[in-house]
Amino acid sequence: MSTDQEPSVTVKLLQLLLLSTYWGMQIWVTFISSFVMDSHLNRHTYGFIQSRLVPFYLHLGSACAFFNLTIYAVYHPSDILDDREAFQIFIFFVSVTVAAVNAQWFGQMTSEIMADMHLIEQACGLGQDIGLSSNREAYAKLCETDVKYKHLSSRLWLYRLLSSLSNLCCIGCNFYSLCYMAENLVTL
User: How deeply is 35 buried, as exposed, middle or buried, from its count of CB atoms within 10 A (0-12, 13-18, 19+)?
Assistant: First the structure.
């Protein structure tokens, strides 16, 4: 279903809207809102908000990445791709794949583990302190005394790491795509 026609202004605008929407969400969620919420909300409120917003963010990001790949592939037939266009398709494909894995697996597991940990913390009277780094001694002691909590804590660390690396990979892919599009602008 690819075409060798020049895309219309509407298609170009849609491509830019999808890419810029995904980029803006990534920067806001990763670098701004997380730090603001961490310093102003208690652990459980922060976790509750994250468990509701992050899955939505991850799924919306996956959709933006998928439609970016689809639009680009339709207007760049594989038989006439140069090396840079082929690499751009590869970048979009990596973004789609990593975003989908993050949305379907890493993000979901993080939310489930966090919910289980919150129940244990609430039973021990924890979770109302402001900031994720406050009262570390109490959480360390809970890890020492509760085997299930310790196991959940190590799994949460692993899934947060995988989700963060996936998110950074997608940010890198989108940054490259933005640079590629900027290089191909005729004028502003």
Answer: exposed
Closest CA to 175 of 27, 6, 37, 49: 27
pTM of the predicted model, to two decimals?
Answer: 0.88
pLDDT, tens only, 134-146? 778 888 899 899 9
* Of the candidates 26, 17, 13, the residue with the CA atom closest to the CA atom of residue 57: 26
At 23, the amino acid letter reads W
Give the gyration radius of the chain's Cα atoms: 20
CA pair distance 7, 162, nearest whole angstrom: 37
pLDDT digits (tens, 9 = 90+) for 165-184: 999 999 999 999 999 999 98
